Amino acid sequence: MTDAPDDARLPAxxxxxxxxxxxxxxxxxxxxxxxxxxAVAVADPGVxxxxxxxxxxxxxxxxxxxxxxxxxxxxxxxHAVQLRYRYEGECCVDTLRRDGDAVEVLRFVTx
Length: 111
Known about the structure:
Elements: E1 2-3, E2 22-28, H1 30-43, E3 48-52, H2 66-74, E4 80-87, E5 90-99, E6 102-110
Antiparallel strand pairs: 1-2, 2-6, 3-4, 4-5, 5-6
């Protein structure tokens, strides 16, 4: 994935002075996305998976695995998938959305 473009007009900190999370954006193939989902599940067995059938998170959505969520996204049954996990001491939030034949990944990373 590539870093999101820098924009000098955006603030570097939140109003309380804490730093904004690092943001990355990129596109992956379906195979790369599945490999990433499996790696996340191995790296953090406590990964939280949120599925979105529309613009909002489905509060009543059943629990699922990262792998199954990617399968549902690929099948067009979901609008987006969000994975929340820890990796090497950092908190990561990945939002996955269909983008043609690829998957758009938006990643926020905080310490």
